[in-house]
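Hi R.,

Here's the chain you asked about this morning:
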Amino acid sequence: MKPSRGAVSMAIIASTLNMGLARGFNVISRSSAGNNFIQQTWTCRGTASFCSTPFRRSLHSTCFIPPDGDSSSSSKNSSSALFSAPATTTSGTNTDITSVNDDQSNEIEQAARKALSITGSLPPPCDFGGITYLDTSSLTENHSHRVLFILGGPGAGKGTQSERIVNTYKCVHLSVGDLLRSGAEKKDYPHADMVKECLVKGQIVPVELSLGLLRIAMDEKAQEVGSEYGSRIFLVDGFPRNYDNIEGWMEHMPSYTAVLGALVYNCPIEVLEARIMTRAETSGRSDDNLDSARRRFQTFHTQTEPVVRALEMTEEMQARDNSSGRSQLHIVNIDATGTVEEVWDETEAAMNAYVKNDVLTANMNLLKAIEEGNLKDFTALCDEQMSVESASKTKKSLVDIFEWYEGPFSDGSPSLISNAEVSIHDGIKALVSYARTTKAGKTVRETLEWKHCPKGWICVSVKREDL
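And here is the predicted structure, written out as tokens:
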């Protein structure tokens, strides 16, 4: 049984605040409540109409445990049928929750509505030459953490894929489980025994503890001196696990974070069990045993899957509320039954779609600086060694480049952007190309090369061709 929130909250408040594990927010006691595809070739093209990268949806359960650990053949057959069936195609964006009863449906809808502001200060999606993107300028200005939830049953490969995401995109991986396991082993941590018991029994740790440890870890990473990459995405692994978690997040975190979405790794239980037992041979984790694993599977099935559905419904609600018909939040379901490389292909496509928001935001801010004659902002978005390829001679300084770049766009009128294309390379490089038409009717094709650096995304080269 999960420890009572009322029974532990006062102790958590006193000791956690004393340790600094919940600085920055208050700890209080609360009561606990179209099958699209992932675009594999990540190059977006468009005209004046909206065009967004599609995300595959699946509302099929990601794990199932028969009651009381029953492993009879009939139970196994039910499990196999549940996980082997491909996601069915649905029309529109309405979530199919006919498989759950009315009470569950109401809980999901209530949680979805409470999570509408989970994307923090992110405004509704914008259009850049036919490509839909999120303007992330407010996140940089407010020093808000960019967050992606990483979800899936134990053994689904979240850690493996997260490691590759970190290596490729230079994100920060924070496993709530690792943070809690570390806390459970600390002699001076007053809740070590409580956390350890929850982990062994496959139960949920009180949200105050999870969020306290998580918030501090994010702040420390963001303030790290000498980081080669700015405005990084935080991968929050294994959170939120239940309604209590999502309520806690909404109470404490939106002022400091913007949740971009979630990567949800779906995998049959028999595959997950085999992976857990293989991992147990070397992991040294106290919860890497079959009994603990089955309890964790059951917890994920009954408590975490409804949260995934709620987040998907939040995405749909945002889309309905926005005039563009697009949402700020994007939940991506990934088939985790394949090889590491096969799963990575889907993960990479999803990550490129998230990263393109920062790239296109930087590109739009650069164009804005040019059209407003703002040399300061232009310089902040350009590499000092920025190169220019054009019919005219090479420019020697950023001031020269700015004057050349401003050129026919110096009347202050916004230019028309069309036929845009964007591609992400190796996680930290990008190309943005588009047709740009002046008020006077002159059209050029511009291609900008971007790279991720300590200041965020900066432009390292520009190529212009007359059309």
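One quick note: The chain is about 40% helix and 20% strand.

Cheers,
M.
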